């Protein structure tokens, strides 16, 4: 079919036109009107939406609500409402732009997005996690007449997910203006067929929307490094609509998580006078990798254990709204812990998230689906799967195959068809589709059935790498059961914790809930918390230490993907409502690390780690478990008010030093000892009453581009000596003084029910986070942080 189409186009070839109009991406996020009412009249161009609310995109209407038990998504879906929402935007186009080609690009709409331009219906997008675009050109008006885009978003069928999805146009929208003859981004494929120390090649394949005749087309390829130094330039004349060219290069710097070196590739379509008609820009990374069934994963010729985390798409108090500075903050917090790989559980992420992974250096296992034709929830994508899964898979791979960070495709997570023979055909078919579009990356799936005879997805023998979730006690069976296929621990752990909560440690890992017989934990805490000693897990999981120890010692496992890097909205195992967000994160929903963060940091980085837990505010004489995460040392000595409580160290089976101490107010000190010498120390003091707050504005660490930056203010409630007070929480008000808006607040507590968009938040175990946006980017902002006894003005630069 495709070939026929191409030859058809070649018969009607065009010479390149005179109008040279380089592509322009027009930011289309501002000035939308929004309503939660639903009426088809809203699609008409002449409908007046003056009474609607003005919003900026990206936008998630669900996150603005208080949490509630009444919503059909349930607490698994985040205890927030869905519904139907309409968006409208009016915009003019200048007379001189007549003749240009316009498409409207949506980064992601949850869910069922129907779009109209000037009353004309453009279609309905089904998959809530994929980008889509519509050609507006034939319906546009120029000059004095306005254009109106109307979008109906329908997230009313609930439940449709096992986690919080958000509702609305929750990723960026842009209007792309380009020349009538232009390059097709989705058909452009950039690969690096050869990568070695002294010789690499870059292959560029691209397609024009129309064929050009008799070598009339000129394409220019330009590769530059980040200092704008030209690495290669090639201009070629071609005819027809398809173009393929290889550039030979000498030594290039390789891309890796440690050194994510990128180059800029510009592909320009030129007219006969050398004027640019259209162009596409990409960041290119040169890297090669290999999965070996015995030795695991290697990158650029060197063994590399994948130290991965799974991440859902929400950004805490922002809900599903994608924001580059929030995502960058999240990724840098992961990087600092030693993470080198991300699994995008269980859906395509935003395009900008992948740009960040390219730039910051993360290997991405990019996942398509959480279910196929068999449902996990009544109204989930299984309803649309049969009709749409191939088209959606094609769009997904074409969208993301030019990112150097993406190194594997996953066609599914814990798919129910692994237990039934229909799984074979689906797996074969989808793998074939992916491979056709991208032969350079392995295809995998995350499986749970570890018995070959019973696993129909594995039986398809189509996957390049098999991922197994949980069941670490089966790991040694896998290489014989699935002979000759590389393996990864695609999901592990599912340990549960609330930041800052410490219940005494048990001899065994507590399973909450205890087994598949129970939906919830039966003997949990009355305040819906879970202890942050690494000692509690869902029954299918285990502690962080155990899971990592099991993966670490097996070379044949390419790596680990811990469930999860951050807490996320929804799936609050082990509790019913009012719990409304997950307990699985190594970092809480507000972005504040739980203690186990430092276990990973001690194992996964060279950063000097010495982290002591818990806080030091207990009842006199109470027996307290004291743990210490450390690295680069032989042992740790613990002192209570100057008296040594002994030296302890980690063991082959335990990644922390541990003591049991009878509480006495004062000072608990851990000293790290290497070769008999004290090399580092850390102190926990008993805190008095809260008298002040300390505010870390973070923005020097995480700001992105000056345009969409959010500022995350971490507020610590402290006593007169500056010690964080863990047991006298207070309500904080974030009160704008100058040039700021409060976007949201959070404290990481999974059962806090007030809306995450409000400017008031209780501290939780002494900490809370305010998310602030400046109105005028170039001016400083001022905000007042207030409790009933404390007031602090904070300047935001
Ligand atoms: C896994 C599943 C994840 C999440 C996790 C919670 O089985 O793949 O999506 O539900 O359990 O423990």
From TrEMBL:
Domain Glycoside hydrolase family 2 catalytic: 294-477
Domain Glycoside hydrolase family: 708-785
Pfam families the record matches: DUF4982, Glyco_hydro2_C5, Glyco_hydro_2, Glyco_hydro_2_C, Glyco_hydro_2_N
Signal peptide: 1-20
Domain Glycoside hydrolase family 2 immunoglobulin-like beta-sandwich positions: 188-287
Domain DUF4982: 621-679
Keywords assigned: Glycosidase, Hydrolase, Signal
Similarity section: Belongs to the glycosyl hydrolase 2 family.
PANTHER family, per database record: BETA-GALACTOSIDASE, BETA-MANNOSIDASE
Name of the protein described by the UniProt record: DUF4982 domain-containing protein
Species for this entry: Sphingobacterium micropteri
């Amino acid at each position: 079919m495709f070939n026929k189409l191409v030859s058809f186009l070649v018969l009607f070839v065009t010479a390149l036109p005179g109008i040279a109009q380089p592509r322009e991406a027009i930011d289309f996020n501002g000035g939308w009107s929004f309503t939660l009412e639903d009426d088809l009249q809203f699609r008409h161009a002449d409908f007046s939406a003056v009474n609607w609310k003005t919003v900026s995109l990206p936008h998630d209407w669900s996150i603005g609500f208080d949490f509630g038990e009444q919503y059909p998504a349930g607490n698994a879906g985040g205890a927030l409402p869905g519904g139907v929402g309409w968006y409208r935007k009016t915009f003019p186009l200048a007379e001189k732009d007549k003749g240009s080609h316009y498409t409207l690009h949506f980064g992601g709409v949850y869910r069922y997005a129907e779009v109209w331009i000037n009353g004309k219906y453009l279609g309905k997008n089904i998959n809530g996690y994929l980008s889509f675009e519509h050609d507006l050109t034939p319906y546009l008006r120029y000059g004095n007449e306005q254009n109106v885009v109307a979008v109906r978003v329908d997230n009313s069928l609930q439940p449709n997910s096992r986690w919080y999805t958000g509702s609305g146009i929750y990723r960026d929208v842009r209007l792309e203006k380009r020349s009538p003859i232009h390059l097709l981004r989705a058909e452009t494929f950039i690969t690096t067929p050869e990568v070695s120390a002294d010789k690499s090649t870059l292959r560029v394949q691209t397609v024009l929307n129309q064929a050009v005749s008799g070598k009339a087309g000129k394409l220019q390829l330009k590769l530059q490094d980040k200092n704008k130094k030209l690495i290669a330039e090639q201009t070629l004349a071609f005819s027809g609509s398809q173009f393929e060219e290889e550039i030979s290069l000498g030594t290039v710097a390789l891309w890796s998580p440690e050194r994510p070196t990128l180059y800029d590739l510009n592909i320009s379509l030129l007219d006969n006078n050398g004027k640019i008609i259209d162009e596409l820009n990409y960041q290119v990374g040169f890297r090669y990798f290999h999965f070996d069934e015995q030795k695991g994963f290697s990158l650029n010729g060197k063994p590399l254990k994948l130290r991965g985390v799974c991440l859902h798409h929400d950004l805490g108090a922002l809900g599903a709204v994608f924001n580059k500075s929030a995502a960058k903050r999240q990724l840098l917090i992961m990087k600092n812990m030693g993470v080198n790989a991300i699994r995008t559980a269980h859906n395509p992420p935003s395009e900008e998230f992948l740009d960040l992974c390219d730039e910051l250096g993360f290997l991405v296992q990019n996942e398509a689906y959480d279910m196929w034709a068999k449902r996990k929830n009544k109204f989930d994508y299984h309803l649309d799967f049969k009709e749409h899964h191939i088209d959606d898979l094609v769009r997904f791979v074409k969208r993301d195959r030019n990112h150097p960070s993406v190194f594997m495709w996953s066609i599914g997570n814990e798919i129910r068809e692994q237990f039934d023979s229909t799984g074979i055909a689906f797996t074969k078919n989808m793998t074939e589709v992916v491979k056709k579009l991208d032969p350079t990356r392995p295809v995998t799936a995350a499986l749970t059935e570890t018995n070959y005879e019973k696993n129909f997805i594995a039986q398809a023998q189509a996957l390049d790498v098999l991922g197994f979730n949980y069941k670490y006690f089966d790991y040694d069976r896998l290489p014989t059961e699935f002979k000759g296929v590389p393996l990864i621990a695609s999901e592990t752990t599912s340990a549960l914790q609330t930041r800052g909560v410490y219940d005494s440690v048990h001899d065994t890992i507590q399973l909450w809930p205890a087994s598949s017989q129970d939906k919830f934990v039966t003997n949990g805490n009355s305040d819906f918390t879970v202890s942050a000693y690494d000692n509690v897990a869902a029954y299918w999981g285990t502690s962080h230490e155990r899971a990592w120890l099991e993966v670490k010692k097996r070379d044949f496992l390419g790596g680990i993907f811990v469930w999860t890097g951050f807490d996320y909205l929804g799936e609050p195992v082990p509790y019913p409502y009012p719990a409304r967000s997950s307990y699985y994160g190594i970092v809480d929903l507000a972005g504040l690390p739980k203690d186990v963060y430092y276990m990973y940091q001690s194992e996964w980085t060279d950063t000097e780690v010495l982290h002591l837990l818990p806080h030091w505010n207990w009842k006199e004489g109470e027996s307290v478990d004291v743990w210490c995460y450390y690295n680069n040392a032989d042992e740790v000595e613990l002192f209570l008010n100057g008296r040594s409580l002994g030296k302890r160290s980690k063991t082959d089976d335990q990644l922390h030093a541990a003591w049991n101490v009878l509480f006495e107010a004062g000072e608990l000190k851990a000293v790290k000892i290497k070769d008999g010498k004290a090399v580092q120390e850390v102190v926990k003091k008993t805190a008095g009453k809260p008298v002040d707050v300390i505010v870390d504005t973070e923005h020097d660490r995480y700001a992105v581009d000056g345009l969409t930056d959010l500022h995350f203010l971490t507020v610590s409630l402290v006593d007169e000596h500056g010690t964080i007070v863990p047991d006298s929480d207070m309500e904080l008000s974030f009160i704008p003084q100058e040039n700021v808006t409060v976007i949201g607040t959070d404290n990481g507590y999974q059962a806090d029910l007030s809306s995450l968009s409000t400017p008031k938040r209780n501290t939780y175990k002494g900490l809370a986070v305010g998310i602030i946006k400046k109105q005028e980017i170039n001016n400083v902002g001022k905000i007042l942080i207030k409790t009933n006894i404390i007031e602090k003005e904070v300047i935001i630069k």
